[in-house]
Amino acid sequence: MATTGGKNSSGAGDPARTLELLWRDSAAAPAARRGPRQGLTVDAVVDAALALADGGGLDALTMRAVAQRLGVTPMTLYTYVPGKSELLDLMLDAVFLRMDRPPFGPEQPWRDRVTSVADANRALHLRHPWLVDLRIVRAPLGPGVMAKYEYELAAFEGLGLDDVARDSALTFVLGSVQAGARAELDARAVERESAMSDGEWWAAHEPLLARVFDGARFPLASRVGEAAAVAYDGLYDAEHAYAFALARVLDGLAALGTP
Fold it and tell me: Closest Cα partner for 49 from 156, 134, 114, 123?
């Protein structure tokens, strides 16, 4: 699948240069001795970039901002990482590499294993919100990406899928988790920006809605919307949405698999 590239896309940098950095090719990676500050490393650059992105999103991530955080000039930074595109790949691989990967038990049901994978990826997106804004089409083939892929494929052992279906099943699970994480992060942002919880917003606007909304004209919307609002104490419940979607995903995979 092709990618259009862009400033917030994976795989948009120089492939050879990125692979050298991902695998820390000592013969080709920028050496600290070539910069005026001897203690700086590629890992330190990645950590500084992660701190910026975690705190302010991808818009806060610039090579100048990373350099300032490290106390070096932008030109010095470029001797370690050639640009933002390569840095994004390094960041992505780093957060994947640092994910917890507890071993799957031999008797553990596949639904429990896949649930663990989904839970871990949801936690990853909520811990690093910028991930939902990063277009990951051509994922960097670094040690973090490969370790994550190897581990997560094993979660489907015993389901009876061939190799292509197993890859597609993993893509399906991760896509569902990412969509849910984006919705949850959007809801958090709205609550933060409005300084109101869903319940508070609903209580404030319900009198106005009652005056303009014709329940007889929209009977299903009226009945179901009210039931959901009462159940969620607002407009949306991230935990319920995640659990519901994951259960449906697992049910679909069960139907796809063979006994």
Answer: 134
Q: Rounded to the nearest 5 degrees, what angle is found at the Cα of 182, between the Cα atoms of 247 and 52? A: 135
Q: Taking a C-beta distance cutoff of 8 angstroms, is the pair 43, 13 a contact? A: no
List beta partners, residue 27. Answer: none
| pLDDT string in tens for the chain (259-residue length) | 333 345 687 777 788 888 899 998 655 444 434 444 457 899 999 999 999 999 999 999 999 999 999 999 999 999 999 999 999 999 999 999 999 899 998 889 999 999 999 999 999 999 999 999 998 877 888 999 999 999 999 999 999 999 999 999 999 999 999 999 999 998 888 888 888 777 777 777 777 777 777 778 888 888 888 888 777 777 788 999 999 999 999 999 999 876 5
CA-based nearest residue to 61, from 81, 32, 35, 79: 81
Nearest to residue 192, comparing CAs of 122, 121, 129, 120? 129
Which pair of tokens denotes residue 12?
Answer: 């948009």
Q: Angle at Cα 146 formed by Cα 7 and Cα 24, nearest 5°? A: 70
In what helix (H) or strand (E) does residue 132 lie, and over which residues does it extend?
none
